[in-house]
TrEMBL record, chain A:
GO molecular function, one term: FMN binding
Protein name per UniProt: NADH-quinone oxidoreductase subunit F
Family: Belongs to the complex I 51 kDa subunit family.
Taxonomic source organism: Candidatus Desulfacyla euxinica
SUPFAM superfamilies, sorted: Nqo1 FMN-binding domain-like, Nqo1 middle domain-like, Nqo1C-terminal domain-like
Automatic annotation (TrEMBL), chain B:
Full protein name: (2Fe-2S)-binding protein
Organism this protein belongs to: Candidatus Desulfacyla euxinica
Entry keywords, A to Z: 4Fe-4S, Iron, Iron-sulfur, Metal-binding, Repeat
Keyword presence, Hydrolase: no
Pfam families: Fer2_4 (PF13510), Fer4_Nqo3 (PF22117)
Keyword Metal-binding assigned: yes
PROSITE patterns membership: 2FE2S_FER_2 (PS51085), 4FE4S_FER_1 (PS00198), 4FE4S_FER_2 (PS51379)
Gene3D superfamilies for this protein: 3.10.20.740, 3.30.70.20
Domain 4Fe-4S ferredoxin-type: 140-169, 183-212
Domain (2Fe-2S ferredoxin-type) ranges: 2-80
UniProt cross-references to CDD domains, sorted A to Z: fer2 (cd00207)
Cited InterPro entries: 2Fe-2S_ferredoxin-like_sf (IPR036010), 2Fe-2S_ferredoxin-type (IPR001041), 4Fe4S_Fe-S-bd (IPR017896), 4Fe4S_Fe_S_CS (IPR017900), NADH_UbQ_OxRdtase_ferredoxin (IPR054351), NADH_UbQ_OxRdtase_Gsu_4Fe4S-bd (IPR019574), PSI_iron-sulfur_center (IPR050157)
From TrEMBL, chain C:
Top-level lineage group: Bacteria
Cofactor note: Binds 1 [2Fe-2S] cluster.
InterPro entries for the chain: NADP_DH_HndA-like, NuoE-like, NuoE_dom, NuoE_N, Thioredoxin-like_sf
Cofactor(s) it depends on: [2Fe-2S] cluster
Keywords assigned by UniProt, alphabetized: 2Fe-2S, Iron, Iron-sulfur, Metal-binding, Oxidoreductase
Enzyme class: oxidoreductase
Any one GO molecular function term: oxidoreductase activity
Keyword hit for Iron: yes
SUPFAM superfamilies: Thioredoxin-like
Record family assignment: Belongs to the complex I 24 kDa subunit family.
The name this protein goes by in its record: NADH-quinone oxidoreductase subunit NuoE
Pfam families xrefs: 2Fe-2S_thioredx
Amino acid sequence: MPEKKILTKNCGKIDPGDVSTYEAEGGFKALEKTLRISPEEVIAEVKASGLRGRGGAGFPCGAKWELARKSKGDEKVLICNADEGEVGTFKDRYLLQHDPFSLMEGMAIAGYAIGAGKGYIYLRSEYHYLLEGLQKAIDQSKEKGYLKDLEIEIREGAGAYICGEESALMNSIEGKRGESRFRPPFPPESGLFEKPTIINNVETLVNVPHIIQNGSEWYGAMGTDESKGTKLFCVSGDVARPGVYEMELGCDLKELVMDLAGAKEIKMIQVGGSTGGIIPSDMLSTPLAYETILGSGAVMVFDQTRDVVDFTYRTMEFLNEESCGKCTPCREGTEVMVGVLGRLVNGEGVDGDMEVLEELSDTMKLSALCGLGQTAPVPVLDTLKYFRKDYENRISQSVFLRSLKTVNG
Amino acid sequence: MGDVKLIIDGTEVSGPSGMTILEAANETDINIPTLCHRPDLKPEGNCRICVVEVEGSPRLVASCHTPITEGMVINTCTPKALAARKTVVELLIAGHTGPCVTDECAKDCELHYLAAELEVGPPRFQVKARRSYPMETLSPYVQRDMGRCILCRRCVRACTEIAKKNVFSMAYRGFHSKVVVDCDVPLDKEECRDCGICIDYCPTSALTKPNKGVS
Amino acid sequence: MERDQLLGMIKEEQAKNGSVSDGAMAHIAQTLHLPIGNVYGVTTFYSFLSTRPLGRHVIHICKSVPCFLQNGAMMAAAIEKELGISPGETTSDGRFSFELTNCIGACDQAPAMLVDDEVYGDLTPEKIGEILKSFE
């Protein structure tokens, strides 16, 4: 299956600094069509398309919009999540760099559908260099009259992975610490400033104009039963050609990383970012879809020379540093896990280390407050499942080395 | 009673919409342990001690902030819920400094009470470095030993919501999170008087009256 | 002024003065009618904000997995050697501060770094030397 460029069709073709080049490619035609039908019809079309959130969680987009549309409250808010902090993910950056107008059109349609007058783009501060271009895209789209009913404001983060989590993101916009909130209430009911709020990822919103323009039937013909449309995959790590690849959902992981990105002698692949699942080399023909493995679309490739325990340690260190610290299982659990994995990496493992990791994983998965803590154990559990021997070796080596010291000491 | 009907531990219960699982359980004398929660403070859901199993939910839910819904079937003492509570208590014990296990404050420590209740055994978890902060003795009203703090934030909320003072704030992130005063200075603030509310709400011996003293 | 301006104000202060001092936090707190502790709490939450003075330019080198796989650690070592400082430190002439950071979303150009707000990718130790030379 070759690449299928729909979301990225304008990338490299239009001038991201000139709205008329976007218009020349048929830009804003979907918005015009939108304004001729009712918000309910727009929502019905998006629902029928089967579009699901592209940020990682995969919630059905149309259903979410419907909740916000029906929610009581005069002022509704649309937030575009451009925080893209997930390790190995850079697709939203790619879209914002090469085609910011698609996002404008997607936001205008979404705003119309849910009845939002105010829109925010929450941009991570690591992407500050995109701010000027994005503001220009807002200004030009506004000048052309495409943002008549939606006032878009960019808000910047300040270095916090957790702010990609929607409730933490809203706290951040409100000027609070970027800690997660408990749910319910869910944002479509009570979100930013307690107003009904829709938070969509950049890529999700960029799908919308194509769905409206070409219809849900056309869109639904792409992908699998539960995963419709195309997806941007961010391939990095041990590959010859890292980058963004747009593929139909359900595509073959092996084809993506080997044929397109040029990976060789693969040991494993992490799909979906730091909290994503692990695919060992003997399962490379896994289709990439919501029903199997997907997440944010990050595809990090590790070749045979890489050390699994070292990888897990680094990943847990990341999650530990980025935990907001509000709930016990995540705040304390990631700290203990970093300690255990760090000892394993340094040859100081002890019998029982794997059990401690598993025990903590269970509690974090079941009882952490938000998605970070709940999914932080995934790389630990997956590496324990597929590469248990690597852990066992680390522990037996540690035990053996210590026994030598005792004998000689 | 209310219009929302649900089942907790096999007993049919009802309550008004908006009521939490914890409140509904308490009305029928079903005890769910809590730590960061107090009935007179806004729920925060940070400690995760009060988690229960709700049929149909893949994860445990915290009872202190989850509203009841029609037809909910809740079990408060399943092996999953008990195991999670126990691990959470062990994690909290592992992360803060040790002397309180033996000193006189242990008898009043809610964390130690919970540990006994949940039959927590010998320590399984270890952090690289336990939190350690110098004792704050400047204030004539409140002595702070933040090494004993378990970050339940009851003092922060009690000071804001009940005493209406805002003396405490949360600072830093993750494991390094800390309840601070201003730009993380020892407590010695003019607006802090001898109301003692924060001391009453502290579950451990992190906040004490200066004359009581902890060696 | 509303509370939702807080993060923006802190960021503006840092952009202007290189860091966020206790005095600046007190001033912001007063403007927004917030306890100082709340301003401190927000400032210390975010890793790109600093309460201690930083150099004129801040280098953020990515240490996350995709950059690590492309010798990111070697790049960090190259900067240490070039500037004679460790992560978290500032050169004595106040020209550079050097920080390790988590994923900056430039994994297709790994190893990568940010100097101030600009991204530099496909780094090599030689390239780093050249890039740093261009900063006053």
